[in-house]
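re: that complex we talked abt at group meeting.

here r the seqs, copy pasted straight from the sheet so there may be weird spacing, ignore it
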Amino acid sequence: MFTPEVLADLNKQETPFYFYHLGLLEQTLYACSEAANPYGFKVHYALKANFNETILRTIAAKGFGADCVSGNEVKLALKMGFKNNEVVFAGVGKSDKEIKEALALDIFCFNVESVEELSIINELAAKQQKKARVAIRINPNVDAKTHQHITTGLEENKFGINTWELNDCVKILHEAKHIELVGIHFHVGSQVRDMDVFKSLCLRVNEFNNWFLDRGFDLKVLNVGGGLGVDYCHPDENSIADFDSYFKVFDQFLERRKGQEVHFELGRALVAGCGALLAKVLYIKKGIKKNFMILDAGMTELLRPALYQAYHKIENLSSTSKNGIKYDVVGPVCESTDTFGKEVLMPESERGDLIAIRTAGAYGEVMASRYNLREPITAVYHQ
Ligand code: LLP
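got the structure back, here u go
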């Protein structure tokens, strides 16, 4: 990723910034398509992971659909080249304005997250004399066994419609004239690397697929969401997510009827690896028991470690020292959670060294903030 030519260029840029390796992004997209296409699976890219325009244009050009969670994401997806009939719109709190706009743009489908939302979409579609295509997001009560803050498929989470409310949905669906049920939708959580979780999901999807058929709905689409995880510990050895194993599980365990489409909503697995946050060492502060490495990037540029105690590999791209030292790598923000890593073993470092915080292409740039009135974060691209 950091060849001498790339490094020479990065050293000239003002830090901090996001670095995107577009070649790796393209390889990742290719690997995903190669793994999904033999089964006829359709992947929608979850824009929430990264809505950087260069990234979006690259993904749209490769024929992916778009999974959006706000009206603004829907509009941006279309502007960046995603096709309106390949856009899905999810989220527990879609506003009336967002629903109206998405109806007018004729997107493929709304992933509906509550019984009340279903009635509202019907009313708003009636006003536009349209039929809204919807998928019911069902809470499958499958444990994603991931970090508690990014698990979504349990009954205690706010997402999706619980199974005991499905009869109410069916009642509305039978009566509503401005709604067409195209499918069912699930998402168990994010950063899932245990394929058994997806197997459990498949078995639940099969149950609901049959449940709807018994009630007269021959569903066109099974949308199984996203969540495939990446290897944060070994960004170079495992730079591309295991798409083969992932799609194979769905092929093996999902009982799709003839003509039924299977849709996925992958975010992290497509973009995490190609991005890194680049920062410089401002100061090395020697404590009694600790050494602090203070960077010019902090939680305002990459929130994941502060918010989820997430691990990102940290590398010193400048130091050639053979002397290993443990540092607490921290940012400049006035919060003690503004820490990228504790006791990180690195070559002896000094002011001005270039530091890479790896695997930051997903939920990095998009979660940046201006807290402490920090400068907006910029991006640098390499092929
Ligand atoms: N579909 C739905 C309904 C989702 O809620 C999500 C992610 C995705 C798809 C995409 O999931 P992915 O393939 O990226 O795992 N900010 C957190 C992750 C939040 C994920 C929210 N939902 C993080 O930095 O780890």
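couple things i noticed - The domain at 40-266 is CATH 3.20.20.10 (TIM Barrel). The longest strand covers residues 275-286.
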